[in-house]
Amino acid sequence: MRPEASWVDLQSLALSLALGLLVGLERHRAGKELGMRTFAFTALAGTLAASTEPPYRLPFMLAVLAFTALVVLINSWQNLRAHESVEITTSVALLLTALNGILVGRGQIFTPVAATILMLLLLSWKEELVGWTALISRDEVHAAIYLGVISFVILPVLPDEPVDPWGLFDLRRVWLMVVLISAIGFANYVLLRVYGARGVTYTGFLGGLVNSTATVAEMALKVGANPPLERFAFRGVMLAKAAMFIRNGLVLGLFAPVALPYGLLPVGLMLVLALVLAARARVPAGEEAPEVRLTSPFSVRAALEFGLVFLVLNVIATLGQRYLGTAGFYGVSFLGGLVSSASSAATAANLAAQGRIAPSQAAYGTVLASLASAVILVPIVQRAARGTALGRQLLITIVGMVVAGGLGLLLNPLFLAATGLAP
User: Where is the DUF4010 domain (predicted)?
Assistant: First the structure.
């Protein structure tokens, strides 16, 4: 036998032993009957079986798997006789350890090591996973499933080209926007569930990433019912708008990166203003912030509504640009922002990515949509928080944001020339 071959075999045995011992150690610390030696022997047996030469290799590997299954059955039978629960998780872990040993014997390293690490994570996080599942509602589970359906079932089968002779209805692009916006919203909804109870800073910002209008409306309703919460609500509203600016910029950057530099200054000025006002709004320590309850951001209805709004805006913006020029596109962007700034930003980015509008138009359309989304909040807050100063504060702030955004648009050519960010 060559020394090189002996060294390779020794490495395989050492790796297999280490993987088996790690899993066995975790099971032993969890108080399970199958412990370190059982898992180590199982991994070694798999490696030895996979290291044999044909025609004995396959029968030996099958024999190891069969013997492991027999050990699992005997252990389960003994637990049942002792009126104990069947350790299904430990049994599956033992079978996976045998498979990992076989993979090591076949010369693989990454797959068995990665599988063992993932297995250890799942085994050691039992309490955390159980506690996490207790916090998830049935609707949220359905939302995650629906998100997977639209991402991996519906999207791949949609046609790549527009389905109409005018090139207005590109179903794949529409659905891709639905998937990405829904995924961003769902991820931030999860973060809101985790961190939302820690105060108005988390609630306002994360809620704004999910749905800024819903977050602000909910806070305004809380203020209307309990005016002392006004000091919390203004800070939360500013953070929600800051999150909206970031989200719309992210949408623009994802779908039309070349357009992003044109929107940096105007959106950046509005974002800085919102953050400064949020920082200046003093929130007394120890007082309870208003809780914002948002429904799960994804459902079939929500996806279809967003897709429909995006499709309609895309068609109208295309026609507006085609027949009314730049002014028509900007008008559609502003009006669309009153309904959904995310849809308007996605529409602008989509048209820029297709070459139907200039990158600067897409950026300025996103700025107008973001401003419209901020403006529409004034009547919403004044109606919900009637009798408080929140509506007046927001009106003054929105005027400041409009001025900041307009100033950014005026100074943008100088900014781009000085920085060289855009041609």
Answer: 179-376
The answer to whether the Cα torsion of 346, 368, 277, 411 is positive or negative is positive
Structure tokens at 82: 């002792």
Spatial separation of the C-alpha atoms in residues 35 and 20, rounded to whole Å: 10
Which residue's entry shows tokens 């090139």?
Answer: 167
Give the N- to C-terminal CA distance of the chain in Å, as an integer. Answer: 66
Using an 8 Å Cβ cutoff, are 204 and 219 in contact?
yes
How far is the C-alpha of 159 from the C-alpha of 137, rounded, in Å? 35
- Residues in CB range of 223: below 8 A, 6 or more apart: 229, 230, 233, 290, 384, 385, 388, 390
Please name the amino acid found at residue 321.
Answer: Q
H/E run at residue 270: helix 260-280
CA distance 86 to 42: 20
Tens digits of per-residue pLDDT, 222-274? 666 666 666 667 787 888 888 889 988 888 888 889 999 999 999 999 999 99
CA angle at 341 for the pair 339 and 346, rounded to the nearest 5°: 120
CB atoms near residue 44 (< 10 Å): 22
What crossing angle do the helices spanning 230-255 and 341-353 adopt, rounded to 10°?
A: 20
Q: What is the mean pLDDT of the chain?
A: 80
Q: Rounded distance, CA 390 to CA 195, Å?
A: 25
Q: Which residues contact 394 (CB under 8 A, 6 or more apart)?
A: 234, 237, 377, 378, 381, 382
The per-residue DSSP string of 366-399 comes to HHHHHHHHHHTHHHHHHHHTTTSSHHHHHHHHHH
Element spanning 53, H or E: none
Residue 225 exposed, middle or buried by CB count within 10 Å (0-12, 13-18, 19+): exposed
Residue bearing tokens 């559609």: 332
The single-letter code of the amino acid at 273 is L
Look at the alpha carbons of 175, 240, 254, 189 in this order and tell me if their dihedral is positive or negative.
negative
Helix (H, G, I), strand (E, B) or coil at 298: coil
Q: Which residue matches tokens 């974002």?
A: 271
Digit-coded pLDDT (tens) for 139-159: 777 777 877 887 788 878 888
Task: Evaluate whether 274 touches 394 at the Cβ level (below 8 Å).
Answer: no
